[in-house]
Amino acid sequence: MKQKLLFLLAFMGFVAGVVAAYVYGVQQPPQPPVFNPASNPYPHGVYAEGIVESDQTSGANVNLYPDVTGPVTKIFVHEGDAVKAGTVLLTIDESVQRATAEQLEAQAQAAATLLDELKAQPRRETLDVAKAQVGAAAASLKMAQDQYDKQEHAYLVEPKAISKDALDNATNGLKVAQANLDVVTRQYQLTRAGAWAYDIRNQERQADALAKAAAASMALLSKYTIRAPVDGVVLSINAALGSYASPQGVYDTYAQGQAPVLVMGTANARLAVRCYVDEILIHRLPDPKALKAHMFVRGTNIELPLEFERVQPYVSPKIELSDQRTERVDVRVLPVIFRIAQVHGVRLYPGQMVDVYIASE
């Protein structure tokens, strides 16, 4: 009985092995690829990596950096918004600069008011006071003259009637009265002449300097508000409320480096592709006017023709896209920009990587 059981188990194992060998030996048809890999559509073509970007007449995207530093207080737009030139995009804390600007503005107004005061001299009330002082001094002189005449006449009639000291005091009083009249007369003439031309000129310069300082402070205050420099679309906002912005940008948590506060693209719905041609392949490119290219969207079967736009005639080091600030490779590339001829039904975004083949000689 035991031997029959062993024989049965061995036979079942044999059958299972045969079935498994048959099943696994059957060749399965290959699965179709998810997408067709990019292939060179030209007999002789140059491959280049491309980056989709908004269509620009020159340069690349518009990177916005503030001219001042401070925490972000408000963001007025969202990514993807179409904006007009001059639209307020973002504000930075301006409390200290606003107080400084208001202080300089007040000082400029005070200097201008003082200048107006100098130009308005003589003041009528001040001139009346000076004139009255001249009249009072003249009356004092008349009284001193009368007193002296009386003393002198009495002394001439009878020298013993008036002492020499009394006559001398009358003489001195007359001289003092004459001197006082001369002083107040000159003071009246000075008041009537108004402010000195040099004082006015000096105050004009001070008022002008303070006005320019106030204007410069107000101009700096406007820098705390970032506005759209051109018509376009907000592609990226790297700042958040409360984040610290500076002329170097804002700190990017993921790239661990500085990034622009905002990135804008043109309002034009057309897109462009920036291709980087390896320096060893540049000589294979035909005349720029005859350049033809084809683009393949990675991970899809989408391929689109490209229209040549321009060449940036400067061969520069290729930058690794994993970290543009630190990683560089020992390769230099020539940027060539194409326009995407047609994008109907195709969804593309600036910054997307694509494969490009350029027809070569």
Do you know the CATH architecture of the domain at 45-55 and 268-359?
Answer: Beta Barrel
Q: Give the number of helices.
A: 5
* Broad CATH class of the domain at 45-55 and 268-359: Mainly Beta
- What's the average pLDDT? 84
How large is the radius of gyration?
47 Å
Strand order of the largest sheet: 1-12-16-14-13-17
Shape: rod-shaped
Helix content: 25-40%
CATH superfamily of the domain at 45-55 and 268-359: Efflux pump adaptor protein, beta barrel domain
List keywords for this structure.
361 residues, OB fold (Dihydrolipoamide Acetyltransferase, E2P), Helix Hairpins, four-stranded antiparallel beta sheet, Elongation Factor Tu (Ef-tu), domain 3, alpha+beta, six-stranded antiparallel β-barrel
Overview of this structure, please?
The chain is built from 5 helices and 17 strands. It has 361 residues and is an alpha+beta fold. Among the domains are: 103 residues, Beta Barrel (Elongation Factor Tu (Ef-tu), domain 3), CATH 2.40.30.170; 68 residues, OB fold (Dihydrolipoamide Acetyltransferase, E2P); 73 residues, Helix Hairpins. A hairpin with a 4-residue loop joins strand 9 and strand 10. Helix 2 packs antiparallel against helix 5 and helix 3 packs antiparallel against helix 4. The radius of gyration is 47 Å and the shape is rod-shaped. It starts with a helix and ends with a strand. The mean pLDDT is 84.
